[in-house]
Amino acid sequence: MSNQYPAVTDPPTLFDAHLPSLTAGELHGLWHTTCLRPAPTGDSRWAEATHLQLHQTHFSLHTRAGDRHAGTWHLQRHSRLGQPFLALQEAETPVLALITRLRRSADGTVRQMVVYFQSGLELQLTHP
Prior knowledge:
With 128 residues, the chain is mainly beta. It has one helix at residues 44-47; strands at 14-16, 29-37, 49-54, 58-63, 68-77, 84-90, 93-105, 111-117, 122-127. It has a domain at 14-46 and 69-122. The chain has an eight-stranded antiparallel beta barrel with strand order 2-3-4-5-6-7-8-9. The longest helix has 4 residues, at 44-47. This is DUF1579 domain-containing protein.
């Protein structure tokens, strides 16, 4: 009798990244929203995010409603603590999101990131 079910593999072990040494290149790629903690107020675009694509200097944000927003971004650091922020610029609207956690597999192919916006919104993102 053959096995009808596909083999189940364990998810990769993820390790916390050292945030003060994080580079922008480590964030490039397509990130999917896996968890959202809404803010009492704030920009609904980010609260409706399904995925975020980070390229070298620009980003695109896709929402549940099917909208697409685009702009530029760079990695910014707190002057004293070295904590990394995503500095996102869409049209005339700048947004800062603190990267509070980044975890990755040993080979870097699987990553999870938690970002916290000034509005109180928290997004958990995963790549791929």
